[in-house]
Amino acid sequence: MDHELYRRDATRNMARFYGLMVVPGLFGQTGLCRTWGRIGARGGRSIVEWFATPDAAEARLEDLRRQKLRRGYQPAPSAW
């Protein structure tokens, strides 16, 4: 599951992205990879949180997604 969220506010010179992705680990665990930064800038930041079960990772993903939506982030527009 892959989620991309964006937040833009020209009055505050704000252009941010936030990405969430559930990834499998080598030893049976499940990771939640989070990436964030400024749109158009090089790099950005990322972190991986590890969970014992896929359900725990999915629950954390949904919690973070809801939190970002409350803060004004919007889902990425669909590609044609």
UniProtKB/TrEMBL annotation:
Gene3D superfamilies per UniProt: WGR domain
SUPFAM superfamilies: WGR domain-like
Domain WGR stretches: 1-80
InterPro entries, per the entry: WGR_dom_sf, WGR_domain, YehF/YfeS-like_WGR
Domain of life: Bacteria
One Pfam family per UniProt: WGR
Name of the protein: WGR domain-containing protein
